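TL;DR need structure tokens for one chain.
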Amino acid sequence: MTPGKGFRVLVVDDYESIHDDFRRVLMPEENKHTNKLKELEGNLLGVIGSSKVSLPEYRLDFASQGEQAIEFVEQACTSRDPYALAFVDMRMPPGINGIETIQKLWAVAPGTEIVICTAYSDHSWEEMRSELPNHDRFLVLKKPFDTIEVSQMAAALTEKWHLARQVEEQVDELEAQKEHLAVTVMSIGDGVIVADNTGRLTMMNPAAEKLTGWEQDQAIGQPVSRIYQVLNETTHEICDGLVEQVLARQLPFLRVSGHAKAVRRDGSEVWVADNAAPIRGKQGDVIGVVLVIRDVTQKRRVEEEQAKLQKLESIGILAGGIAHDFNNLLTVMRGHLELAHRQVDGNSKLHHHLKRTEGACISAGGLTKQLLTFSKGGNPVRQTACVDDCVRDTADFVLHGANVKCTFDLSKDLWPARVDTGQISQVIQNLLINSRQAMPAGGTIAVTMRNVPELEAKTMELESGTFIEIAIKDEGIGMDEESQNRIFEPYYTTKKTGSGLGMAVCHSIITKHGGSIKVASILGKGTTFTIHLPALPEETVVRRSAVDDLDLPINAHILLMDDKLEVLQVTQVMLEGLGCSVECADDGGVAIEAFNAASKAGDPHDLLLVDLTVPGGIGGLEVLNKIKECSPETPVIVTSGYSDDVIMAKYEEYGFSARVEKPFMISELARAICQCLENRNESTGSLTGSTM
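>> reply
TL;DR here they are.
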């Protein structure tokens, strides 16, 4: 029973002579009798007059009992070389009879063709049909049988078996393709809905179930227009369904340009992009429609963020254009106010008015910095710091005298972070003011800070690394969904007197620190702002309880350069008030000449204080480079009204010793000068310019 050429045929009969008869008929020797038989068979099969007829070839096996036959069939199926045909005798004592043999044979190989061979009439055709339900799979051959009849039966039934096998294989292949297609459709991320030519749903994949809120079992048979509804982005009315449009207009392909909102079964909405195409039959007629839906909510959010960034960029151009001149004016105003303030009795009304005016200048300077911060500039000047100190100090200052209580839950082992403490303080100040204003009748603001390890950060959709978390939670009026979505937009505000800059500034500062800020709010219950900043777990920071007062006067020869005469004048007075001797220059070229002349005269400058930008002239960076060529140890401090300039943010990388942003206070100038001179003296051992 080894695999070979020809159909396998099994003869089941308890007489060996019958075996020989089948062998003679189906496997004849090449002799004249055989040739005559083939000629007769050829005539019967329609090949008249031919002695060379192509007849089937067979491989015969013989079994004497039904049990043996079943074993043969099982082995054949196992070896994947099944029998096409079995000739089964009805009576084979002492074993099972032909009917039982056929039943067991079909249980193993149901496709096998059967010829029942019998010399008795004890089983009627009706009885055999009732006991063998697959009556299209067997024929009855009466003994003694005719040779040609056996040959014809074998040829016809083996060919029938062969054709059935081909059909079965093709059906299996089609089923496999269908299964593969179904698995593919069910696995893809886009929603797929299939409708018939009446627009009723016949299939939908899990992604479509998620997008529509309908389960396939509930949706089958329903009009697609009921299952999948899309709102017009402008009018918010339900649009005509794509499936109906394809069927009505017989379009080859229909795609929606832009995005629209799909309405789920529960009434919620999701941004989608969709397209539809007809399914055509063999004759080209439309037999259905396939609809593909993509969730573009995330893409929509990205587009909205890009629009926000473009808005910020436009405002940044405006802010940068006015910031320099505005800060120069504030420098003059604030400088003169501070000088006047020092000459007035602290208990006089004039002192009070000067103090209030000075506070207004400080606020104006802060507003300019806010404009620059959330625009294209305002790069943070970072240093490693304990952020909890900054948060607590800011909270104590902002909430002093307010009718709200502030609680702190700060981790004792909180990691340091590299931050611009001034900008972080500005963020905390804005958030606390918002919380305080949201609770006009009073309440509690809870401030918590903790470390966020790298593994936890991944689950929170943060960038890789470790973070510190700052959460500020109030018990205020809360915000609706629209306010939460727009809270960080520039000029968006829910307050009558608000500028709409505070939250945009917060977002910009935190983003430029490589962190994130999010809001969660419930109307009537309160709001929580959560900030994450990159942390430095391996670094330590020495905390300082206070800054020592400076020793005055400062005996230093200073070269001051600024293109604005008013700024030069007020800054000169401020420096002279600190005990410095000052030489002024209104351009970088003049400053370089003055520096060289003083050096040749034996009275070199101890320090330069230069403006970064001089329109149409030589600015501070060019002055620095020239001075370093001849006197690399001389400190150079840079000032600017462009606090967003990259040189101001990274002044040390460009070679400056310190930076002072306009508008500045006398104390800021004094501290920067003293620090620069101290650093120079430590490196050179010089006593020139030392403090007293």
